[in-house]
Amino acid sequence: MKETSTTATSLPGDPNLPSSDEEIAALSTHIPSQLNYAVEDFFRLPEQTAFQLSPDGKYLAFLAPYQRRNNIHVRLLGEETAVRITQETDRSIGSFFWASDQRIVFVKDSGGNENYQLFAVDKDGANPRDLTPFPEVTIQIIDDLYDDENELIIGLNKNNPQLFEPYRINIHTGEMKQLAENTDPLQPIVQWLTDHQGRLRVAIRMVGGVNEQLLYRRKEEDAFVVVSETSFKESLSPLFFDFDDGDVIFTASNLERDKMVIIKYDLAEGKEVGEPVFAHPDVDVSSLHYSRRHKVLTEVSYTTWKQQHHFFDEARRARYEAWRKALGDYEITVVSKDKAEERFLLRTYSDRSLGAYYYYDETLDAPELVTEVSPWLKEEDMAPMKSVTYQSRDGLTIQGYLTLPLGHTGAPLPVVINPHGGPWVRDSWGYNPEAQLLAGCGYAVFQMNYRASTGYGRSFWEGGFKQWGLTMQDDITDGVNWLIAEGIADPAKVAIYGGSYGGYATLAGITFTPDLYTCAIDYVGVSNLFTFMQTIPPYWKPYLDMLYAMVGHPEEDEAQMRATSPVFHVDKIRTPLFVAQGANDPRVNIDESDQIVRQLRSRGIEVPYLVKYNEGHGFQNEENRFEFYRSMLGFLGKYLG
What we know:
The chain is α+β, with helices and mostly antiparallel strands. The chain is built from twelve helices and 35 strands. About 45% of the residues are buried.
């Protein structure tokens, strides 16, 4: 066990299981030599990142390291000297935003426990304040109240850990006023929506565990009334009110459709208005943008194999095309703008570059460079990410991404299969530091959007219900076999690595197809579907019936869940395995990793096991990321060569 300042009796999990520092360090001796870049080059903190423009457009705030943790810095636009206004040393600040021209708010948890607290500080570092100093409580941002310089609307689960209730909070004093109650765990409100004036007028309530009611009121003093009720499999997801703050909202919806589209919905009448604002035949569309100042829709963005844009506003289209002409063939996103919408911060990226930040003023001819994100990584040294498709054994088209090392001659390669976490998310095209690290070592990297991944419509998503370890796993296996058939993968050198659900898929892969993989890396992965359900965070409890429907019910589906939980079938595992876990993980409890390690070791199989007692669902602290990825590379080097 590693030395730690925390006493063994208070450590999460079984403190006797983690490998020693010496055992973990020994893995790194197998890292291939003569690499162009070290692990640290891919996973060090950027010198400056996450830029935000103040509402008046005069100041830049950004994150930069202080004692190896990201802290907020502020500088006057056009000047080089910045002032650090926070001094966090235990954990990086994850996110922040300007609440006014004078004050910045940020959120931070403790040791990866995801109990996020809200803090505020002036732009010069004065008047710091913990706004939500409540133990074992986490927050949600409901509305930043863009036109209110003194208050925000947040959700807090301080009255009941399962339920979030809305509060208006003063960012100077921390004074709070509760705006509505949420007291019934059997019918919890799981989402709140305000209008453009910051009035709380829409709520989503869960009923029966698997149905959702849309609630509405015209005025805050009115009672909420039920507008519609749908199954959780259907979606009527409010985005924002129409600009007159009347009864009509813009929503993303797949009601009576397979794909999500953007529609207008009349809350008073309880029905869709007119034709869809935007729809795509092949993928879901759920993101809609607008101009606060001009009160017009500007664009939708959606993902096919990469992000796409459709513009409603000609001024926005012309501006975007001018940026593309000036900045070249990179993806461009607007990360911040001033209240007047005349000054913008842009971020570029590609599959081979983390890109740069640019400042654009409408009075300028072209965007001005603020900073490159990782100038020590040369774009020409990075490997391109290619979109590919293959067929599953039952005829589905599975879309994925293949990253081949530079200089690939066409001969079969050692491959790392990397299924995404979630599982109800999707992989997309762009810069991936893990893929670049592995490609730099000569490995191909394959990521696939197996069934249950989102973005491809309702039937594809529902196709993964209760299919953990079954057809979802078959999609991964079919991808491996496709790589082998195409001559891309050396069948004797295939590894699998994933985090969260991807960690489960890793364990399932070496349990149910043990001859397919040469080695495996499980990062905060699920090993036992029963205990996974029992240890979810309290604020996930309202969604438990949905999890039963999507993953399996521990009583009704007991036989299937036992058959697909790797921990009950360790006798089938013969693939070398490396396990990593954050001890404070609230999503995948450390017991999930402890169980698989304990069971394998009881059979005399040694499993390198890396545990970090100041981390949660994935490693955030820089030194822990370095250790994990060095260990990963060494482990792969030992078994893949």
